Amino acid sequence: MHELLVRNECTLTIIDHHLEDEDGLEPDEIIEGPVGATCTLIARLFQERGLDPTPEEASLMMMGIYEDTGGLSY
């Protein structure tokens, strides 16, 4: 992935609620915070920018929450 990003001169933003060192990745921006799920950070970005997620984006975020909560059990 790193080679592809460098070759195509892509910017990299990492969004994570428990950021760990990523081998070989030097992000242009890091978005992190003391929240329970990365989806919370993404939802805040949508709100700040006045955007509504597409059905696909909302489904992906729900899948992340589902996985992080043991199928919504905790």
How would you describe this protein?
A two-stranded parallel ribbon has the order 1-2. The radius of gyration is 14 Å and the shape is globular. Helices cover 42% and strands 8% of the residues. By secondary structure, it is mostly helical. The N and C termini lie far apart (33 Å). 3% of the residues are buried.
User: Which residues sit in consecutive blocks of at least 5 with pLDDT less than 50?
Assistant: none
SS-based class:
mainly alpha
What is the element string, with H for helices and E for strands? Answer: HEEHH
Strand order of the largest sheet: 1-2
Helix content percent band: 40-55%
Q: So what's the overall shape?
A: globular
Q: How many helices?
A: 3
User: Biggest β-sheet, characterized?
Assistant: 2 strands, parallel
Oligomerization status of the protein chains: single chain
Distance between the termini: 33 Å
How many β strands by DSSP? Answer: 2
What share of residues are in beta strands? 5-15%
**Mean pLDDT, rounded to whole units?**
87
Radius of gyration, CA atoms, in whole angstroms: 14 Å
Notable features of this structure?
globular; single chain; 42% helix; 2 strands; two-stranded parallel sheet
Question: Which helices and strands, and how do they pair?
Answer:
Blueprint: H1 2-7, E1 13-15, E2 29-31, H2 38-48, H3 55-68
Parallel strand pairs: 1-2
Briefly characterize the structure.
The chain has 74 residues and is mostly helical. 42% of the residues lie in helices and 8% in strands.
